[in-house]
Amino acid sequence: MRTRHAIMFRLSNKVVQVNFQDHTEIMLSSETKVVTYVNKKGERSTYPLNSAMESANLEMVKRLKYTKDILTHMLNVNVAMVGKNGQTGTDKIDATNPMEGTQ
């Protein structure tokens, strides 16, 4: 799925990967319950899923919140659209800009 700020994939191993326009990435693994963040320099950091939102890495937290907003929106739209011609409406997501205030 594509938004104004990112492209989201669900990989065959069920990992959700979000590639942002500024070349950062978030990967969520439900199996290992970790968040992996790749910054603009290509440096990887891994955090436990249950505490990632409290991380001192504010750039990662901002993008993780954006990812959560997108996933929540997709789930809500899919539930609301069940039985309505298969339309999902996911192309109208307007979540907070995760790149706002970044260099």
Automatic annotation (TrEMBL):
The species this protein was found in: Strombidium inclinatum
A Pfam short name: POLO_box
Protein name: POLO box domain-containing protein
Family annotation (SUPFAM superfamilies): Polo-box domain
Residue span(s) of domain POLO box: 1-76
InterPro entries: POLO_box_2, POLO_box_dom, POLO_box_dom_sf
Domain of life: Eukaryota
CDD domains: POLO_box_2
